[in-house]
Amino acid sequence: YPSEFLMQKITEDNQIPVHLHVSVSLQYVAGLKGRALVEFFHGNIAEVENEELRHLMWSSVLFYKTPNVEVMACVLLSTKAIYFLLDDSFIHADEHQSDFWNKENSDCENSSFHLSCCFVLKLNDLQSVNVGLFDQYFRITGHSADHIVTCLTRDSYNTHTFIQQLMAVLSLLARTPSPEPVDKDFYSEFGSKNTGKMENYELIHSSRVKFIYPNEEEIGDLAFLVAEKMDGLTNLPSLNILLYVLAFQVNHFEGSAQNTSSLQPKTLILTSSDLFLFDEDYISYPLPEFAKEPPKRDKYQLADGRRIRDLDRVLMGYQTYPQALTFVFDDVQNQDLMQNLTLDHFGE
């Protein structure tokens, strides 16, 4: 251990996405190759001596306790746990995290020693994995609110590869078999079925971890929501969602020392007549079993919407993946074509 093939694969995967900036400590990790990377894992991250590193992936992650802070992480899957090596800027992003992250090592800040915090989710604590629409992201759920993490891969291939590797590693776990089912009485047998909502597709792994995939109803719900936002400009039966993709909206800040740009995570939805940008909650839905109340915001919040027929031109950048697209719309004077989102519906 490890095989040459595995070391080559992990080395190839150890690349930070070019559009995302990370701290010096994570840049150091991204510079490691082959055996140096494996030795770094065993010397600095692994919790037990005999665990094997099986997969490495760079991804943006969200935590259930801090749903508004998206942070870059190096995700390492071993035969014992999933490790999230986090950008150290995350610790300072929110003052309310003091109970979630220890800040004991803050005296290292001004030295040449760069610190990363590592979040560990043991495979034995894993309960379910929810795969998002079109494999754009997945959520890993443990036994408490501290153990819920969403990986925003924004890439179906990376999602699929990680899920396959995770299933393979879970197959190695020796878990006690489930107890024999208890004979249900008449009321519980028939009372639980009248929820009125179709369950998502569930695959229960031999390790008893659930892998939950979205069903067709989620796309139907999304189409209904989009039609509602279009304010009756189209009839629902003819509305088709052609594309659903997690992207970034680029906001340019001019006049600063150098013209900088920030990337705002958005969900882009394309229908046959409109282009929409939504702010989506990737971490709170479906509700975890221990949740006492629904989340403070809806799963989808409309940020912007334009009609395709008002699209003037699309500018494409010539850089490599990820591609930058600029949509230029005609400046439409007639405002009733697009409902003003701030309008008071009960006003004039």
TrEMBL record:
Subcellular location(s) per record: Cytoplasm
Main localization (coarse): cytoplasm
GO molecular function, one term: kinesin binding
Listed GO biological process terms: Golgi organization; lysosome localization; regulation of protein localization
Signal peptide: none
Nischarin C-terminal PH domain boundaries: 241-347
Classification via Pfam families: PH_NISCH_C (PF25625), PH_PLEKHM2 (PF23142)
A GO CC annotation given for this chain: endosome membrane
InterPro entries assigned to the protein according to its UniProt record, in alphabetical order: PH_domain-containing_M2, PH_NISCH_C, PH_PLEKHM2
Keywords for the protein's UniProt record, in alphabetical order: Cytoplasm
PLEKHM2 PH domain location: 114-178
Key word Cytoplasm present: yes
Name of this chain's protein: NISCH protein
